[in-house]
């Protein structure tokens, strides 16, 4: 049962303006669209804050080169997981809300497919490391290789369980599992630092991931899925799921490549130190990208339940997130040097301009993200693939051109230019893909 929160406007009784009371009531009193989006965003913020603390500890116990190699290795884990889990997390977000008694079977099938495919992809990557990522040659050590492959497969399930929980409107558990993961990996990192383990960063990350998976899936399959089954006993099996998954997967790979190939480019062009400077700025700025992604996930869940409200809710997400992101970007523009200085003066000296550019790029990214989510909800997957493919080509192409000239700052220029090239035209043509509905009396 959801506990209702009394807002100041609600307590004011008839003296408060009705529109103001209604607005605060919807945001704070349990409307699923914004409530679940806010919880997912809070989860991302908490993950980023605890993740930053994790890397602060890492920089205390390991030298800059080891931090850079470890971040590149974890970026590879996320890239391979993104390839191997077949973008089934978004499929779960889209189809679980109306799946009823089929939700558990759908989640288990996605888990199996994602884990098996990611294991194969990670093993192939290790065989090709000398060619595609020479800086990660240390991953080919037998014990480290096992840890790397297990981490990639486990992270696929970690992402998929977030999709299942979101589709079931159990976003509080997404917040809880991420907090558990962050806390445990910080504790294991401290233990690895005390024991002076050479691959301690990767080992701590993988061990914490395993614990978070066990705890979360016990809740998911013993509580959340049975409750959803009881609430929707008559739901039909998902229709045209494979076609949707295949097309959405292609689009997602372009976005994942833009996110996770860039760290490998930086490592290969600028070495471990450059990778370290880039990594911490990206960890902070990526939180802003996650605000748009998380609210978009909530939008897709609600669109699956009430398709007729898609335009209204998409415009609301766009307005709401624009205010939040504008405030966050302003803070980062001012605080960037001091924030990076927490990791050491060299991080502030090399990463401040990069962090500011990445923060600015989150604003046009909001428009792009909403456009992609609306296309997903309408099953216009050609647009989903096209928008993300263009973003990938622009980011990677500009990064290759600018890194030799501008160093890590060139990556920030690449992201800002690519996002503006897509976000600004979408904003200008907003009334075409999100037409304003006539007012009803």
UniProtKB/TrEMBL annotation:
Residue intervals passing through the bilayer: 39-58, 70-89, 110-133, 139-160, 172-196, 202-221, 241-259, 279-301, 322-341, 353-374, 381-403, 409-430
Keywords, comma-separated and alphabetical: Cell membrane, Membrane, Transmembrane, Transmembrane helix
Membrane topology designation: Multi-pass membrane protein
Top-rank lineage group of the source organism: Bacteria
UniProt keyword Transmembrane, yes or no: yes
Subcellular location, record wording: Cell membrane
PANTHER family, A to Z: O-ANTIGEN TRANSPORTER-RELATED, PST FAMILY PREDICTED COLANIC ACID TRANSPORTER
Stated name of the protein: Lipopolysaccharide biosynthesis protein
Source organism of the structure: Streptacidiphilus cavernicola
